[in-house]
Amino acid sequence: MGGKCPHRHVKKRRYSHKTARRTKFLNMGDDLVYAQLNKPDEERIPLPVDEDLPGMGQYYCLHCDRYFSNVAVRDEHFKSKRHKKRAKQMMGPAPHTQLDADLAAGMGMPDNGPKLMSM
Predict the structure, then answer these.
(1) CA-CA distance, 31 to 37, in Å (whole number)?
(2) Coil, helix or strand for 56?
(3) Which residues span the domain enclosing 51?
(4) Is the pTM of this model over 0.70?
(5) Separation between Cα atoms, residue 27 and residue 23, nearest integer Å
(6) Do the beta carbons of residue 99 and residue 107 sit within 8 Å?
(7) Residue at 10 is within a domain
(8) Longest dimension (CA), the chain
C-alpha cells in the first residue's frame, strides 16, 4: 500500500520578502493618478520631505506613483518600457472609477425613466 504518510503536514507557505515589500508603499489607483495628471500646474503642491520614503520623497514618478532613491534611478526609470507603457495608458481615456463600478452594480441613483404627466 502506497500513499502519503498520515503524520506529515505541509508547512504554511510564508510570504516572501518581495510580497511584503509590494504593500509597504501603497499605490494610488489609476483614477486618482489620472486626476492628479489632469490638474493644472498651479494646483500641484511641491513634494514635502519625508524621511520614510526613498530619497526623502523628492524623486517621484507621477505616472507610476513610485518614489526613487536618487535622480539617476528616476531618470533610468523614465527610459524604461514599464514607464512608457504607463504614461501612454494615462494619456488615453479616463480609467474607471468607483462611481462607475457602483452604477454598474446597481448601487447608484435609481433610474426610473422620464416623469409622466399627472392628471
Answers:
(1) 10
(2) helix
(3) 27-93
(4) no
(5) 8
(6) no
(7) no
(8) 85
pLDDT of residue 76: 96
* Residue 70: partners with Cβ closer than 8 Å, 6 or more residues away: 55, 59
Residue 97, sorted as left (phi over 0), alpha (psi -120 to 50) or beta, turns out to be: beta
pLDDT, residue 83, reads 93
CATH number at residue 69: 3.30.160
Q: CB–CB of 80/87 below 8 Å?
A: no
First-residue to last-residue Cα distance in the chain:
85
**CB-count burial class (<10 Å; 0-12, 13-18, 19+) for 24:** exposed
Does position 42 have pLDDT exceeding 60, yes or no? Answer: yes
**How many structural domains compose the chain?**
1
Asked if residue 88 is part of any domain, the answer here is: yes
In a domain, 70, yes or no: yes
Domain-embedded: residue 76: yes
If phi > 0 it is left, if psi is from -120 to 50 it is alpha, else beta; for residue 59 that is beta
